Amino acid sequence: MDSSDIVALVTGAGSGMGEATARLVVERGGRVMLGDLAGSRGGAIAAELGDRARFTAVDITDSEQVAAAVNGTVAAFGLLNVTVNAAGIPGVTRVLHRDGHMFDMDQFRRIIEVNLLGTYDVIRHTVRAMVEHEPDADGQRGVIVNVGSISAFDGQVGHSAYSASKGGIVAMTLPLARDLADYGIRVVTICPGSFDTAMLASARERVRDEILRTTAFPKRLGQPREFAHMALAVVENPMMNGESIRLDGGNRLGHPVLG
């Protein structure tokens, strides 16, 4: 798929990797619906990007809002052929704290609800829309790019819920690709390492230093635009399917980082 043919829905587009992806889609001649919470910067970003961009307020844990975001994309641009699932929340809590209190189950459920169930709901509504338009010459109707994390593989102290949510996304990538093959829809998950986004901004300096120490090269945090380039590379390459790709500068987190 050529970048200029992209009609994308990007969740979590009000900041970070979602924002960078939305910006790059427009820069390369595509069109994009920026989806994020009502109080996000998504609306202002869409206005800045011009006629090729729109904003929709969406909480991905609300299925009616997800359906409206997908339907709104099709209504605005005529079809939907790319979805990038960048919406997600962090969560770092030990199972048992030193003062004796346990990890709150409501917090665990919330992380799973947003990162895993919310992503899956966007996927199923996306598929419903993608199958309605004609495939291209290669038989392709669309591409779904999910955001995983290297925490799916190298989970740290306090990452039990977050790693479980991202591990679930990784685990369902190949089954989804197989499930959707007959429709000509590809599914790929990108697993970023430590990127310079709001999610990492609150980390202590010691944590950030340890992340850089365990990164092979380059010795810095990833930039959101680097994620965006990978996402569009996946979209443009029809042989990329059913795969989870680490995007981490060769980082292999040791133990412990988040103590």
The average pLDDT score comes to 93
Major sheet, described briefly?
A: 7 strands, parallel
Please count the beta strands (DSSP E, at least 2 residues each). 7
What's the alpha carbon Rg, rounded to whole Å?
18 Å
- Write down the CATH class: Alpha Beta
Q: How much helix is in the residues?
A: 40-55%
Describe the protein.
- By secondary structure, the protein is an alpha/beta fold.
- Helix 1 crosses helix 8 (224-236) and helix 3 packs parallel to helix 4 (105-130).
- The protein is globular.
- The protein has a 7-stranded parallel sheet with strand order 3-2-1-4-5-6-7, sandwiched between helices.
- The chain has helices spanning 16-27, 42-49, 63-77, 105-130, 160-180, 198-201, 205-213, 224-236; strands spanning 7-11, 31-36, 53-57, 82-85, 142-147, 185-192, 244-247.
- It has one domain (3-246): Rossmann fold.
- The mean pLDDT is 93.
- Helix 1 links the parallel strand 1 (7-11) and strand 2.
- Helix content is 42%, strand content 15%.
In short:
With 259 residues, this protein is of the alpha/beta class. It is 42% helix and 15% strand. The chain contains 8 helices and 7 strands, in the order βαβαβαβαβαβαααβ.
Tell me the layout of helices and strands.
Layout: E1 7-11, H1 16-27, E2 31-36, H2 42-49, E3 53-57, H3 63-77, E4 82-85, H4 105-130, E5 142-147, H5 160-180, E6 185-192, H6 198-201, H7 205-213, H8 224-236, E7 244-247
Parallel strand pairs: 1-2, 1-4, 2-3, 4-5, 5-6, 6-7
List keywords for this structure.
8 helices, Rossmann fold, 7-stranded parallel beta sheet, alpha/beta, globular, 259 residues
